[in-house]
Amino acid sequence: MPTWNKWSISNVCILICVLIFIVMTFAGGSENIYVLLEFGAMQNQLVAEGQIWRFITANFLHIGFFHILMNMVIYYQFGNLLESVLKWWQYVAVIIAAMLTTTIATYLFGDSANVSAGWSGVLFGVMGAFIALALIFPRQFQQYSKQVIAPILILNVVIGFINPVINWIGHFGGFIGGFVMMGCLALLMKSQKKR
Fold this sequence. Notes:
Layout: H1 9-27, H2 33-39, H3 44-48, H4 54-57, H5 65-84, H6 88-109, H7 120-136, H8 138-162, H9 168-194
Helix pairs in contact: 1-5, 5-7, 6-7, 6-9, 7-8, 7-9
């Protein structure tokens, strides 16, 4: 398993999520809908009114302790793993793509009355990225994709039973964003290697 440094982009994202969660807790609680909206959770009507920053901010918010615990524990492992095999800018591109496609999919196809937040879409983006790498570089990355896909899928099935109010549309959007962005980057990498 590759090693990674403590100030990786993944770990900085985790730190940001945890600090925001702590501030939200003192501001009235991370499960309080008014606190969530004040801190930038996703809500279609507010986005339609021009609050487009929610496409990014919603990813860093979490609803309850179990939500942030599960997301951050899994992301620590698999986010750092993906980061360790990419250049920093490639990793940032994948993460930003997953963030945006998570919230854009929620905006376009989700329930306009719902308030959503969380890093789960980025986790699915990481999974999508590993699948793209495995398809384009099967020798190097097929084993990585197997290590990532099963745990994330199993965990999400478990969470689905525990908490039926899950933004599956956002998860799928994040997966597509990570897969497409990583696919484009991997094809570019492959073409450069052939030269």
